[in-house]
Amino acid sequence: xxxxxxxxxxxxxxxxxxxxxxxxxxxxxxxxxxxxxxxxxxxxxxxxxxxxxxxxxxxxxxxxxxxxxxxxxxxxxxxxxxxxxxxxxxxxxxxxxxxxxxxxxxxxxxxxxxxxxxxxxxxxxxxxxxxxxxxxxxxxxxxxxxxxxxxxxxxxxxxxxxxxxxxxxxxxxxxxxxxxxxxxxxxxxxxxxxxxxxxxxxxxxx
Length: 206
Description:
- This protein is of the alpha/beta class.
- It has helices at about 5-10, 40-50, 80-90, 110-120, 145-150, 160, 175, 190-205; strands at about 10-15, 20, 25-30, 35, 35-40, 55, 70, 95-100, 125-130, 130-140, 165-170.
- The protein has one domain (about 5-205): Spore Coat Polysaccharide Biosynthesis Protein SpsA, Chain A (Alpha-Beta Complex).
- The strands form 3 sheets. A 7-stranded mixed beta sheet has the order 7-6-1-8-10-9-11, sandwiched between helices.
- The protein is globular.
């Protein structure tokens, strides 16, 4: 275990949001298989390279066999904002990396850049043309009370939450130069085909 890894694991937890049935794929998103491997396993592989503090945020017991702690939203029917709230309420780490189970093409190198950029900001995430890219993102523990307050007030859209915090908006090119598919969400069968092709191409080049 490297010194950098030992240092990172002392202050970082990783939470994977895995709630939600995919109507377009007919099953739980994180359990959809790509080249014989579930999407959440791809995300877990990256998380394991960053820390041993890994938690899955989902009320679905089908995630229990993966062997990680499972927590669920404390406030129902509030979308991903409730998952982030569950993370902030649960975590004892100063910094928390939030990942989504439907982004199997994330990589550790890009994520480490994001973590390095986080410093003392409330939230660190890539800023794209349509606003802040919510996943992956690093949340500081100090967001806990304000996030819960906004959730209790009925805020739904993550972009509306971000306006209330000190957000380090990272140039996405700093991350995409390592991985052009970093922000790829897999939502449809055609996305699966595209993702499988990318993985196979990457494998053939290594």
